[in-house]
Write a structure and sequence with these properties.
The complex is a heterodimer of chains A (about 110) and B (about 120). With about 110 residues, chain A is mostly beta strands. Helices cover about 0% and strands about 55% of the residues of chain A. In chain B, about 0% of the residues lie in helices and about 50% in strands. The chains are: A mainly beta (about 110), B mainly beta (about 120).
């Protein structure tokens, strides 16, 4: 069965420094993988998705993620954090044909 | 093209009352999903519907919860005789097709508080 593990519940970075949010997945085959972002009291917005076309996926707002099958990882990165990046980030994998399975989320804080 | 719309955004109910949450999918989307987010947790799948059909309700509690997506109008998630443990954010998502490659587009959520 597919599942995802987000290794950090909270990450704090200084503005202008790199961001790394870690995600490991468990699947019997190469899955689709997504990262969603949720700003406080808002809905979820798709950041990027992996669908096996390319292992390095570029998303919105300067974020990207690299699919590493050997490490079963799909970590989210950004070279330089901005204050507006402060939010909750979810690594997501589809279960079967349709429902999404969410990780527990990583709260990103950005310090001025 | 309007996004996924949910109303109300906030709903307060007393224990034992009914809660009705509405979701209008994006234009052209015929697949609707409901998720629940408890405090400090990720979203948990509840139910997947197409027009007039429930496709997968494996995440739905067996009692008090029901969902529909009629031929006309929004999808409705109904919670009867609410209890404090039902307090959560309920998100609706939609997609144009079914499949693991399809992105699900989320609404802003309904935050239910049961007193």
């Amino acid at each position: 069965a597919q599942s995802v593990t987000q290794l950090d519940s909270h990450v704090s970075v200084s503005e202008g420094t790199p961001v790394l949010l870690r995600c490991n997945y468990s699947s019997s085959y190469s899955p689709s993988l997504f990262w969603y972002v949720q700003h406080p009291n808002k809905g979820l917005q798709l950041l990027l998705k992996y669908t096996s076309a390319a292992t390095l996926v570029k998303g919105i707002n300067g974020f990207e993620a690299e699919f590493k099958k050997s490490e079963t990882s799909f970590h989210l990165t950004k070279p330089s954090a901005h204050m507006s990046d402060a939010a909750e980030y979810f690594c997501v994998v589809p279960l079967g044909n349709t429902p999404l399975v969410f990780g527990k989320g990583t709260r990103l804080s950005v310090i001025a | 093209n309007a996004g996924v719309m949910q109303n109300p955004r906030h709903l307060v109910r007393r224990r034992g009352q009914e809660a009705r949450l509405r979701c209008s999918p994006m234009k052209g989307h015929s697949h609707v999903y409901w998720y629940r987010q408890l405090p400090e947790e990720g979203l948990k799948f509840m139910v997947y519907l197409q027009k007039e059909n429930i496709i997968d309700e494996s995440g739905m509690p067996k009692e008090r919860f029901s969902a529909e997506f009629p031929k006309e109008g929004p999808s409705i998630l109904r919670i009867q005789q609410v209890v404090r443990g039902d307090s959560a954010a309920y998100f609706c998502a939609s997609s144009p097709e079914r499949g693991t490659q399809e992105t699900q587009y989320f609404g802003p959520g309904t935050r239910l508080l049961v007193l």
